[in-house]
Structure formats: C-alpha cells, structure tokens
C-alpha cells in the first residue's frame, strides 16, 4: 500500500502541518514515510504545499507528481494540482476558498465548507485538522488514536483549549468523510 498526497493552500492555513502530522503518525505505526514541504518566500499569504508519501514498502522518491490524494484549501491549489491527480484519486477541497471547484469526473471529490465549520468549532486555526480528519476518515491512512496521541503531546501544555478544538475538528472531519463512502 502506497498513498501519495499533496496538501496545498495559502501560507498560514496549516497545510504543512497536515502532512507533518500524517507522516509522524504513519511512522509511529511502522510505515515508511516522506514529507517534503514547499512554500513561497512569503510564509503567510504566499502559496505552500507539502508532498507526503505513506507506504508499507520502501519509498523511492519523496516527489509526488501524480497524487492519489489532493487536499486543496484554496482555488489556486486546485488549478495547479488537480489536473495531476491519478484517475480514481481523491480531491478534498474547501468550498469557502475554492469557488470554481474542479470539473474532473474521474476522481472522487469531497467538497466541504471548511472555513464555516472551523468557525462553528470556534477557531479558524483548526481548519487544517478538519482536513486531516477528512483524509483519515476517507483513506484510513493512519489511525485516529495515533494522531490524537501525537497532537495531545504536542499541544497539551502549550494550548489545551486549542487542543480540544483540534480534536473536535478531526472527529468532525472523520464524520464528514463517512458521508462519502
């Protein structure tokens, strides 16, 4: 099993963090991983993307040219990366920031108003964990429990209130993904 994924959006939306937490959890579950971030010179507001590969086999290259999964948090990310999604691949995108969506009909699309849901949860900062929940709920690439443990150890002392909101966002994402099975 090998899953190649690209997460893309504006700097500051947490796309690199999505790939990082998935890679860390997969590694703890004994899988092979690669994590290759890329961002423009402007951290906040510039474009950012990360290529993450999770595999039960050795990984030949961290470069993802034809992703199985694309997470697009803004329209420029769909415009740039959606044409390269493998047929029968998966596109998860934020409808609040992707007004034109994607016209492909040979892929599965999960279109979610992520800004609205993050607002309901109480913080726009949890948008990336909402997307992470959708990824794991749809693909099973990692276990929720592994992600929860990592996130808890990372945030427990730093910001326990945000930790609770992030865990809520992940669970909400998993619930959303289940509607697309």
TrEMBL record:
PANTHER family: 2-OXOGLUTARATE SYNTHASE SUBUNIT KORC. GO terms for molecular function: 3-methyl-2-oxobutanoate dehydrogenase (ferredoxin) activity. Residues 11-175 form the Pyruvate/ketoisovalerate oxidoreductase catalytic domain. This is Pyruvate:ferredoxin and related 2-oxoacid:ferredoxin oxidoreductases, gamma subunit. InterPro entries: 2-oxoglutarate_synth_KorC (IPR052554), Pyrv/ketoisovalerate_OxRed_cat (IPR019752), Pyrv_flavodox_OxRed_cen (IPR002869). Keywords: Oxidoreductase, Pyruvate. Its EC number is 1.2.7.7.
């Amino acid at each position: 099993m090998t899953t190649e994924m690209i997460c893309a959006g504006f700097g500051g939306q947490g796309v690199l963090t999505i790939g990082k937490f998935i890679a860390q959890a997969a590694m703890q579950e004994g899988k092979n991983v690669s994590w290759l971030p890329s961002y423009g010179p402007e951290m906040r507001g510039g474009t950012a993307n990360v290529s993450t590969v999770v595999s039960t086999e050795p990984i030949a290259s961290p470069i993802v040219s034809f992703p199985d999964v694309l997470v697009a948090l803004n329209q420029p990310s769909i415009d740039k990366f959606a044409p390269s999604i493998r047929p029968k691949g998966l596109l998860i995108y934020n409808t609040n920031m992707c007004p034109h969506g994607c016209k492909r009909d040979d892929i599965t699309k999960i279109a979610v108003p992520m800004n609205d849901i993050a607002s309901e949860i109480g913080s726009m900062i949890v948008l990336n964990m909402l997307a992470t929940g959708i990824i794991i709920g749809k693909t099973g690439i990692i276990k929720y429990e592994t992600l929860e443990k990592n996130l808890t150890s990372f945030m427990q002392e730093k910001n326990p209130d945000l930790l609770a909101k992030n865990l809520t966002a992940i669970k909400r994402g998993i619930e959303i993904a289940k509607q697309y099975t």
